[in-house]
Amino acid sequence: MKKERISIPRPQTAFILVQCPNCGNEVTVFSTSTAKVKCNVCDAIIAENTGGKAKINGTVLRRLD
Ligand SMILES: [Zn+2]
């Protein structure tokens, strides 16, 4: 029996858990988010888009994938 290889394309995008530099709240940011992501506690800007990639302003805790 012939084995088939199925390649699953891995997206280069990921959800990232970022800690707000202001209040320590944990915010989930999409790595290619085109919108500004604000902390839902203190309204600090956690991520903003810079040429297709999100610039993270807080501490990246881990990737959620
Ligand atoms: Zn905050």
Protein model, in words:
There is one protein chain. The mean pLDDT is 85. The protein is elongated, with a radius of gyration of 16 Å. It contains no helices and six strands. The protein starts with 14 loop residues before the first strand and ends with a strand. The chain has a single domain (15-64), classed as Ribosomal protein S27 (N-terminal domain of TfIIb), CATH 2.20.25.100. It is an all-beta fold and 65 residues long. The strands form two sheets. A three-stranded antiparallel β-sheet has the order 2-1-6, with no helix packed on it.
Count of separate DSSP helical elements:
0
List all distinct small molecules, including ions and cofactors, that are bound in this structure: zinc ion
Assigned CATH class: Mainly Beta
> Total domains, how many?
1
Overall pLDDT: 85
Radius of gyration: 16 Å
Adjacency order of strands in the biggest sheet:
2-1-6
CATH overall fold name = N-terminal domain of TfIIb
Give the biggest beta sheet.
3 strands, antiparallel
| Coarse shape | elongated
Assign the structural class, choosing from mainly alpha, mainly beta, alpha/beta, alpha+beta, or little secondary structure.
Answer: mainly beta
* Beta-strand proportion: 35-45%
CATH level-4 homologous superfamily:
Ribosomal protein S27
Can you name the CATH architecture?
Single Sheet
Q: What is the H-and-E element order?
A: EEEEEE
- Count the beta strands: 6
Query: What is the CA–CA distance across the termini?
Result: 33 Å
In terms of topology, how is this protein built?
Blueprint (H helix, E strand, L loop, with lengths): L14 E5 L6 E5 L6 E2 L6 E6 L2 E4 L2 E6 L1
Antiparallel strand pairs: 1-2, 1-6, 3-4, 4-5
Bound molecules: zinc ion.
